[in-house]
């Protein structure tokens, strides 16, 4: 059974099995319920030919990238402040633990009222989805910094600001990186919910609007696009962590430092 440990062969066998099960499902339930892989490919060719698919993917990716980036940039200093300052943490932690259990999709209606039906509401929703995950991971990382490191820095005359920049931030980077990476998946879930309810462009809109035409093949195309977009961005971000942040203990794409 050593052949199962071959990574490339295992991946090929896995996807072959998925395609086989998919095709069996199409034969069993019919194309109206489960389109075959070939039918899905033909549906994708239709959407590519008229330019719809590429446009929708670009729009959804732009929304995710902007909201995810802004949410992370705001969340990191907030998380550091909560973890570093005990007074802030006493008041902020209960609030964070309350609000984080409210899913982003529950705020769609409110965000539409507050920010309108344009891009602002969708980006704000992704920022919300990103913010709490990154904040929680960041201040958890701050609290995990060993007290001995802090005492050593203080004994050498380091100021609190120097301790933050040269001790706490480097030690917290693996937690921050993990939080940002987890928030990426939540961002994709948030944007699909927003595009299904209040958009006329994007992959979520494609999936939702396809029901009107009974085009399950287009729905499958949208699902595959989402998986591919998420997989690609996660891999690229993981590669960035492995190549650039490896010295801080950040684990890369393959699980190796």
Summarize the structure.
The protein has 257 residues and is an all-alpha fold. It is built from 10 helices and no strands.
Write the layout of secondary structure elements.
Elements: H1 7-29, H2 37-49, H3 52-84, H4 86-99, H5 108-115, H6 119-143, H7 147-155, H8 160-197, H9 203-209, H10 216-244
Helix pairs in contact: 2-10, 3-4, 3-6, 3-8, 3-9, 5-6, 6-8, 7-8, 8-9, 8-10, 9-10
Oligomeric description of these chains: single chain
Q: Report the sheet-strand fraction.
A: under 5%
Helix proportion: over 70%
Major sheet size, sense and barrel closure: none
CATH superfamily caption of the domain at 61-198 and 229-248: MetI-like
CATH overall fold name of the domain at 61-198 and 229-248: MetI-like fold
How many beta-strand runs?
A: 0
Order of helices and strands: HHHHHHHHHH
Q: What descriptive keywords fit this protein?
A:
257 residues, 77% helix, 10 helices, MetI-like fold, mainly alpha
Describe the overall structure.
With 257 residues, this protein is an all-alpha fold. It has a domain at 61-198 and 229-248: MetI-like fold. 77% of the residues lie in helices and 0% in strands. The chain has helices spanning 7-29, 37-49, 52-84, 86-99, 108-115, 119-143, 147-155, 160-197, 203-209, 216-244. The longest helix is centred in the C-terminal third of the chain and has 38 residues, at 160-197. The chain is globular. The model has no long low-confidence stretch (mean pLDDT 85).
């Amino acid at each position: 059974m050593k052949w199962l440990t071959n990574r490339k062969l295992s991946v090929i066998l896995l996807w072959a099995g998925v395609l086989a099960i998919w095709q069996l499902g199409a034969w069993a339930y019919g194309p109206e319920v489960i389109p075959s892989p070939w039918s899905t490919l033909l549906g994708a060719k239709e959407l590519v030919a008229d330019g719809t698919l590429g446009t929708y993917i670009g729009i959804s990716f732009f929304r995710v990238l902007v909201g995810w980036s802004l949410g992370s940039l705001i969340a990191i200093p907030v998380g550091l402040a909560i973890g570093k300052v005990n007074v802030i943490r006493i008041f902020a932690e209960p609030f964070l633990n309350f609000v984080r259990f409210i899913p982003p999709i529950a705020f769609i209606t409110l965000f539409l009222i507050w920010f309108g039906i344009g891009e602002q509401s969708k980006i704000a929703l992704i920022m919300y989805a990103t913010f709490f995950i990154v904040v929680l991971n960041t201040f958890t990382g701050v609290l995990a910094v060993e007290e001995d490191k802090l005492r050593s820095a203080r004994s050498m005359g380091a100021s609190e600001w120097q301790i933050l920049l040269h001790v706490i931030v480097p030690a917290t980077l693996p937690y921050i990186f993990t939080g940002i990476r987890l928030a990426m998946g939540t961002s994709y879930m948030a944007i699909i919910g927003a595009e299904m309810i209040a958009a006329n462009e994007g992959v979520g809109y494609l999936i939702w609007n396809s029901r009107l035409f009974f085009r399950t093949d287009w729905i499958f195309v949208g699902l595959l696009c989402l998986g591919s977009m998420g997989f690609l961005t996660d891999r690229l971000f993981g590669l960035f962590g492995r190549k650039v942040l490896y010295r801080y203990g950040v684990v890369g794409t393959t699980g190796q430092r």
